[in-house]
Amino acid sequence: MSHKVERAPHLQSIRSLPVDFRLKDALEDHSSRNSETVTMMNSTRVYNSLTKNVEVVGTNINNKVDSNGFDESPYGKGPYRGESLNSAASTSQSYGSSFNDSKWSDTSYDAKKKLQSWFQLPDGNWELAKILTTSGTELVISLSDEKVLKVSGDTLTPANPDILDGVDDLMQLSYLNEPSVLHNLQFRYDRDMIYTKAGPVLVAINPFKKVPLYGNDFIEGYRRKTIASPHVYAITDTALREMIRDEVNQSIVISGESGAGKTETAKIAMQYLAALGGGSGIEYEILKTNPILEAFGNAKTSRNNNSSRFGKLIEINFSETGRISGANIQTFLLEKSRVVQCAEGERSYHSFYQLCAGAPPSLREKLNLKTAMEYNYLRQSSCYSIPGVDDAKEFRVVTEALDVVHVSKEDQESVFAMLSAVLWLGNVSFAAVDDENHVEPVNDEGLVTVAKLIGCNVADLKLALSTRNMKVRNENIVQRLTLSQAIDARDALAKSIYSCLFDWLVEQINKSLVVGKRRTGRSISILDIYGFESFIRNSFEQFCINYANERLQQHFNRHLFKLEQEEYIQDGIEWARVDFEDNQDCLSLFEKKPLGLLSLLDEESTFPNGTDLTFATKLKEHLHSDPCFRGEREKAFTVCHYAGEVMYDTTGFLEKNRDLLHLDSIQLLSSCQSNLPQAFAANLVAQSESSLSGLLNKSGGADFQKLSVATKFKGQLFQLMKRLENTTPHFIRCIKPNNNQSSGLYDQGLVLQQLKCCGVLEVVRISRSGFPTRMSHKKFARRYGFLLLESVASQDPLSVSVSILHQFGILPEMYHIGYTKLFFRMGQISVLEDTRNRTLHSILRVQSCFRGHQARLMVKDQRRRITAFQSFIRAEKTRKEYSVLLKQYRAAVAIQKQFKGRIGREKFKHIQDASVLLQSVIRGWLVRRCSGDAALLQFGVMKGHETDNVLVKASYLADLQRRVLQAESALRVKDGENDILQQRIQQYDNRWSEYERKMKSMEEMWQKQMRSLQSSLSIAKRSLAADDSDASVNNDSSYGSPVDYTRPTNTGLSVISRLAQEFDQRSRIFGDDAKFLVEVKSGQVDANLDPEQELRRLKQMFEGWKKDYGSRLRETKVILNKLASDGGSGEKMKKKWWGRLNSTRMS
Fold first, then answer.
1. What is the pTM of this model?
2. Active-site annotation, residues
3. How far apart are CA 257 and CA 307, in angstroms?
4. Binding region for ATP
5. Average pLDDT for residues 215-240, to the nearest whole number?
6. Known binding site: residues?
7. Strand 156-158 and strand 773-776: pairing?
8. How many CB atoms lie within 10 A of CB 423?
């Protein structure tokens, strides 16, 4: 952990100069601070003056050392190391002289004056050595293992003081050399401080373990600026604030080799943006895209268990309020070859293993899934699992993520069906059909399952995998394929299905993240792309990846080196040009036409007879004079990249670049019944280009032609660079500390190689000597002008800017004033920003206090007014309530007085009557007792005992009173029971009245129905009688053969008479029953039955009889119709009679 350093107030912002150079300016008089100090490193004259000034500094230092031996250097307090004062001068001299001579601005060093230095061991690692003695140019040093060596002074490299161990910004190092940078990074890495700043670049070292640097507490700390250490959160927060402040799109470029932690770093940045810009719910969908993309685009390699085999750019859009409003994902160069071939110890894409391990039984049965080791594509490597990773659990996570991004269950099943189809394609085998090695697929489980999953016929699939249609002179020729050609066709189909599936998923994700979201044009793009790769055998994938890194490195150089220096010159800033490694020559080797690597590759790919060997030969023939190219033996060539030389093997270059797919395979996909294969076919057709149409491959068959992989990737890369050029970039360089993926191991050679590949050291060097922060005069004055007096702030922007700088004591060497902008060294603008924020905070504090004071006064006044008003209202209300209560009290007193008087009088009268009665009884008793022939003496004796007898009778009186009270209480009980009985009698009377009304209504209804039936019968009788008389008249007047109408009439009369008799009988029965129930209900007749239940039963019987009687009347009608069917007059008679009958029938 780095030590906290105490500095003088005027030295707090000085961080980018050597210790002696800064100390000189800090201790000189303020009058000597002028702009000439900044240009001391541009000429020998300035260098000499620097040396003289340092000697003066030495004198000042001698005066500044206190009795405890502690110095007051800007690096903080610490024990003075006993270095001679001349060592500072010599160090400064070496710094100035080496600035233009060496790429490291401070590696030249007088080792005799230092006690510790860096010594490089034979294995390439650096170790801190202690200088014991010096003799001329030779020194005796002691290493950490107490080994003593005699070495030359030129072999030692200066070491920084211990107080600088573990600084969080490499720009703070006094000596920026390789061992110092490696030591500082290792010092922090060993203490789980994995993030270090290198100027504007964040260096992140993969810890290969969980470190306590993340979570809501850290997010809140970086948001509130209470945590200032380097972090991905800090970079992301800076990008978000600059986007809102400057209204300019931002980009975060994350690079590094495989296994360096790029994917995790991108997720951490997205988590911070989601935490600060969330609230609409879209941020949750954005975070859920990571499991999907990792499952379908990541795989286990020899260097990384979760290696991204594609590049991606996630553009997150924000609303005007700084909230996330949508996102878009763009992918680059998916490694399709991994689908069909996998090296030992590696795995194919995670999605295959997750499907095999985590699919539910219903889905396994539907897709005919097997275990991973039963598929040929996955069986090429013996690695089927990753330690610490549960593929079944990850499958559930992926399905949940698909639900979140609104991929329907039906589409999810189609996706898993395509994955299963790709796996089963690898199990399709071929058998020879003739002597010329022509083959056709074996009709086994693999072939049938593939046809079922993609929705095509087995015969069509067999033809697509074993034959090729080609068109020669307007004639279609079918050519059989050999075994190698058939395998290539099968693998090409599998790769195309998986690639199209990956693109389709990305498209669905983008639809979910964009549809319905409002954009404002402000966005933050996070680029997670593969880093520079160099293996023992480098193929086409490494060729494209390293080309992309060359292009990204040029963007990095343009932003940090080229554009910066050009801007200094254009704005009139005196600037010492810094040399850096420009990779334009290497980019020209790739991109120049017509003799560039990509052009020659596309040209050779168009030739039907082109091979990898002819391609390598053509490269050696045309590019042998290029300084970045070197031909090797056979099919190999070497390219000098910015990160080092890489040898490429051209085996498979042409095939991978062509990425051809037979037209038969395209037609097969388009003829499938499933939606996804049809969409894949349409997408493949849309990618075709007219420039490559009509070409024939080596076999003479027509293939589906499209843009070559290299050309398509180049176009995507140019679009990416164009997008990044329009943003403000923020760079994160991920470093892999070891190849074992083990925590705690730090390989210096590997880390140094990656630092060189990323250009980190050059970034620190140019940032230390440059002005990374710049701002226009107008913007600077507008942003900080309010800190001045009003009279000064009203001047022109340049004058205001100069006044601000002078007022806040910014040292002249810490800034430069250009024609249009102000240029600041690292950390200076943060001083002004802190002052501005503190001032704004103070203003807001004053305003809040004043407004609070005003609000409190207003509240007090309103409270006083409200209290007075409430007191008046409550007083009036109380007075009214008191007057009402007073009247009620007086009325109650009067009532109580009258009531109590009446009770008292009644009680007095009762007691008086009882007393009189008692007295009369007692006196009567006494008279009767004394009325006998008693002697006067006895009378006297009795009269003497009269008082005792009276007392005895008083006890009798109490007993009588008790009995009277008991009788009164019994009377009250009886009265209560009498009241209850009266209520019950009243209820019974009410119910009896209701029953009586019901019986009367039922009786009236039955009487009406009876009268209706009687009238119908009488009408029927009269009608039959009339018809009978008419028939007799007709018989008398007729002549010829006599017709007998008497028999049917008599028959009808007999039927009617029986119905009439039954009606009369039933009416009497129902009448008697109803009358009996009425008598039972009224209590006139005693019977053990329920009148209500019997009444309901009688009603049901009446309804049943009524229904039956009506049906028999209808039967009678039918009989009469049959009897009178022979005569016309009979028909008229029946119609007439039934008409009259129907008119009077009851409803």
1. 0.61
2. 258-259, 263, 304, 307-308, 531, 533
3. 10
4. 256-263
5. 93
6. 256-263
7. unpaired
8. 28
